[in-house]
Amino acid sequence: MRQVYLDYAATTPPDPRVTACVAESIPALFGNPSSIHSFGRSARGAVEKARRDVANLLGARPEEIFFTSGGSESDNWAIKGMAFALRAAGRPCGIVTTAIEHPAVLQTCAWLVQQGFSVQYLPVDAEGVVSLENLAAAVDETTGIVSVMFANNEVGTIEPIAEIAAFCQVRGIFFHTDAVQAAGHLPIDVQALGIDALSLSGHKFYAIKGIGALYLRSGFSLDALVHGGAQERGMRAGTENVPAIVGLGCAAALAATELKEEARRLRALRERIAAGVLALGESWLNGPNDSVHCLPGHLNFGFRGIRQDVLLMRLDLADFAVSAGSACSAGALTPSHVLLALGQDERKAGTALRVTLGRFTTAVEVDAFLTALREIVTDLRRIRK
Ligand SMILES: Cc1ncc(COP(=O)(O)O)c(C=O)c1O
Q1: Which of 161, 204, 338, 356 to mutate to test the pocket of ligand 1 (most atoms within 8 A of CB)?
Q2: Is 358 close to ligand 1, i.e. is its CB under 6 Å away?
Q3: How confident is the model at residue 332, as a pLDDT?
């Protein structure tokens, strides 16, 4: 068997149908979308079609979608843009977020603290769930923004977004969600859920890298992100990356039609791996115990006494690409802030392996992975004795 890719949460391979859209658009839609002639109008038409497709995936209106370079940019823009807009208007601008956000949110908040904003971090329970009680305790009259991720990128926990959004709506608090891991994988209706702003990233659902979007509910405005031309309604200047936008639209349209069936298929594969891991003994799942509250193809687990870097490298040698699910800085694995927030100690957090499945994962690959995992874990346990 060839190399098996089981790291879809890090990035997804582009869908060949997306790659074809992107490749065709490079020569065919090279015009500048701001040009008035037919070349420009063709490119503009493709950009606006993609905007409709992304809007449709989220239950939003096309004019509520702004293209960005990806999840990090969308997160930065939503939170910084709203924080500065609220402060300039003399309105409450304190931020409440969670301890398990992606660095794109955590580092944005850390920078905002340096700019004089207040930030509070909500704790989570042992499965990674944010509680409304903790949210209610943290929010006060100084709070202007709540940002809670739709689903966690390390352990896959899906947060109670509708409840959090409703809580914010009645108090007039701006609610942003980082849906980078959820968009294209879970059904999302921003209207029904009551979300004010949402970040998504193309390379997490089979588009190419360097393209994403920010949904911003009509009626809200942020400070412009890049000043210059009038692109993205004057909010993000610069000639549009037409091929990447076309690819994002294509990926959104595919997800909108295939998402439900695909989620069902992945959940079944996920359960197969979960059962296989638990059957090996001295093992556990990190994050939600049931697949309903977890991203469909997402698993995070550990084996007592087996370090994540050792297991990861042994699996890599056996041609299975998985992740430790924690930041790798200067070649050294640091304990995951997410697992620490779930209440684990550094030793337990240091055993976590993240396995994430996706559109091209087959049952044959899953079975081969389980066989390799069993062999490697058995071998490591023998060596340890
Ligand atoms: C939850 C979450 N937010 C934000 C990001 C950043 O997205 P991007 O790589 O598109 O900047 C990621 C990427 O791993 C993520 O998982």
Answers
A1: 204
A2: no
A3: 59
Average pLDDT rounded to a whole number, residues 361-373: 98
- 72 alpha carbon to ligand 1 midpoint, in Å? 6
Question: 97-124 burial by CB neighbour count: b if 16+ within 10 A, else e?
Answer: bbbbbbebbbebbeebeeeebbbbbbeb
Instruction: List the beta strands (DSSP E) in 41-178.
Output: 65-68, 94-98, 119-122, 143-147, 174-178
Neighbours of 132 (CB within 10 A): 12
Q: Which domains does the chain possess?
A: 4-12+259-384 (3.90.1150.10), 16-254 (3.40.640.10)
And the tokens for 34? Answer: 């701001």
- How many Å lie between the centroid of ligand 1 and the Cα of residue 281? 33
Residues 126-175 pLDDT 10s: 999 999 999 999 999 999 999 999 999 999 999 999 999 999 999 999 99
For residue 137, report the distance from its CA to the centre of ligand 1, in Å.
28
Q: Tell me the three state secondary structure of residue 120.
A: strand
The pLDDT of residue 326: 56
168 has catalytic annotation = no
